[in-house]
Design goal:
CATH class of the largest domain: Alpha Beta
Shape: elongated
Number of strands: 16
Strand content: 15-25%
Distance between the termini: 53 Å
Bound molecules: histidyl-adenosine monophosphate
CATH architecture of the largest domain: 2-Layer Sandwich
CATH topology of the largest domain: BirA Bifunctional Protein, domain 2
Number of domains: 2
Largest sheet: 8 strands, mixed
Radius of gyration: 28 Å
Structural class: alpha+beta
Strand order of the largest sheet: 1-5-6-11-10-9-7-8
Number of helices: 16
Length: 434
């Protein structure tokens, strides 16, 4: 017979997951489920409804929505032609697809604003490193159809609540305003004027950014570029009165909730659709390099994608970065337990009865496990202890013969005998299922 090694050498390459991707299993899956549950519960309790969009979209959605000059569109998209020759792209982010759905699926005719959330995987061809994957998961919120600063504050509050529930320590919200089409162009001119005499000191990427996306000069991590950033003019001092008033009100609202934030003029975000309030969530460990979330207002995006001018604000949290952080910090939580019963058997007649008992329990919605490959009762009890179940139900030769089942309470060691017909009801009551 052909072994795995032979098979792989015959095929030429050992099968591995693609670089920058991760299998989520066992212990990681526990965190993943928990984080998803916390985010989704927090979102639903605040009135957000779930949306799931396709994993791939027309490439033009991201080119138009995220911006041609961004790193995401310029370098990081997984773009391919399908068999009909359409150019498709694995979604690198969630906001443009949600806005596409808002326009395409008639969400504009619902009472506004529409508050949506998602928990999805995204794809960016980035250089893999700690906290940076080519496939990663994001929890996102989008509120479309309301221009009030209260909505910005509410998104920030919802996000903060979720991080607090996850018990991630030392979170700070780095916040800025990026202005609007009225005040931003003037500021960009101002910024370019500051940089024009210093072009020789910039890194090669920033030399390009000066021409294509000058705001990104402000968040380059190159040391020389960072020195120049220190004295660069700040957009916050160049906002029009509307943007100034909006931003001031957002801050007043989040002050009211005593949310820990810092004004940070370098927060300019890597996607082109932002206007007004922008923010990132940092923690002490990750800092600017690996922010654990980011978002802001995008009042021009609906219009840019062909809809009427519609204000919107949203946020995306990096799930893998949050899990990495929780694992590093050793955050403890109680994982939801679905199995509280182990079914043990002794003898061939009992095995058949136990197979039926296991399925009767599962049919009644009661989680249970058994190990039919193990004949010895000692081995089966070892598995039951490892699973940490509350009860073991035992059928031996005698119980199989007289139609009874032994319930063993694993904590106290107490044993009781019940007729088989009553056992599902008894267990449902004990586990408070009826
Ligand atoms: P983003 O800042 O590109 O924003 O991503 C949001 C979060 O996703 C980041 O803060 C980070 O935690 C996580 N993330 C991004 N790239 C990676 C990666 N390669 N590996 C692991 N985690 C990553 C957006 O995507 C916007 N759509 C957020 C938004 C929603 N703005 C308004 N609404």
């Amino acid at each position: 017979m052909l072994g795995y090694g032979n098979l792989t050498s015959q095929m030429g390459k050992k099968l591995q997951k693609p670089r920058g991707t991760k299998d989520i299993l066992l212990e990681d899956q526990k965190y993943f489920k928990y984080v998803q549950n916390v985010f989704e519960t927090v979102a639903e309790e605040a009135g957000f409804q779930k949306i799931t969009t396709p994993a791939f979209e027309d490439t033009s959605l991201f080119v138009r929505g995220v911006g041609k000059e961004t790193d995401i569109v310029g370098k990081e998209m997984y773009t391919f032609k399908d068999k009909s020759g359409n150019s498709l792209t694995l979604r690198p982010e969630g906001t443009a697809p949600v806005v596409r759905a808002y326009l395409e699926d008639g969400l504009q005719s619902l009472p506004q604003p529409v508050s949506l959330y998602y928990f999805s995987n995204f794809f960016r061809y980035e250089r893999p490193q700690a906290g940076r994957y080519r496939e990663f998961w994001q929890f996102g919120l989008e509120v479309i159809g309301d221009k009030s600063p209260l909505v910005d504050a509410n998104v920030i509050a919802t996000v903060s609540r979720a991080y607090k529930k996850l018990d991630i320590k030392n979170i700070s919200i780095q916040i800025n305003s990026m202005g609007c089409p009225t005040c931003r162009p003037k500021y960009v001119q101002f910024l370019k004027k500051y940089y024009v005499g210093n072009l020789g000191k910039l890194c090669p990427d920033c030399k390009k950014r000066y021409k294509t996306n000058p705001l990104r000069l402000l968040d380059c991590k190159n040391e020389k570029c960072m020195t120049l950033q220190a004295d660069a003019p700040q957009i916050i001092n160049n906002l029009c009165s509307g943007c100034h008033e909006h931003f001031k009100t957002v801050l007043e609202y989040i002050d009211e909730l005593e949310i820990n934030y810092e004004l940070n003029p370098k927060i300019v975000r890597g996607l082109d659709y932002y206007t007004g309030t922008v923010f990132e969530v940092w923690n002490d460990r990750s800092g600017a390099q690996n922010s654990i979330g980011g978002g802001g207002r995008y009042d021009e995006l609906v219009g840019l994608l062909g809809g009427p001018k519609t204000p919107a604000v949203g946020f995306g949290a990096g799930v893998s970065r949050i899990i990495d952080e929780m694992e590093k910090e050793g955050v403890e939580f109680e994982a939801k337990k679905n199995v509280n019963i182990f079914v043990a058997q002794l003898g061939s007649k009992a095995r058949k009865k136990c197979f039926k008992l296991l399925n009767d329990l599962l049919d009644a919605g009661i989680g249970a496990e058994a190990r039919f490959d193990k004949g010895g009762i000692g081995d089966q009890f070892k598995v039951a202890s490892k699973l940490g179940v509350e009860y073991t139900l035992l059928i031996g030769q005698r119980e199989a013969f007289d139609g009874t089942v032994i319930i063993k309470d694993m904590a106290s060691g107490n044993q009781e005998v019940f007729p088989y017909e009553k056992i599902v009801k008894v267990m449902a009551r004990r586990l408070k299922k009826d």
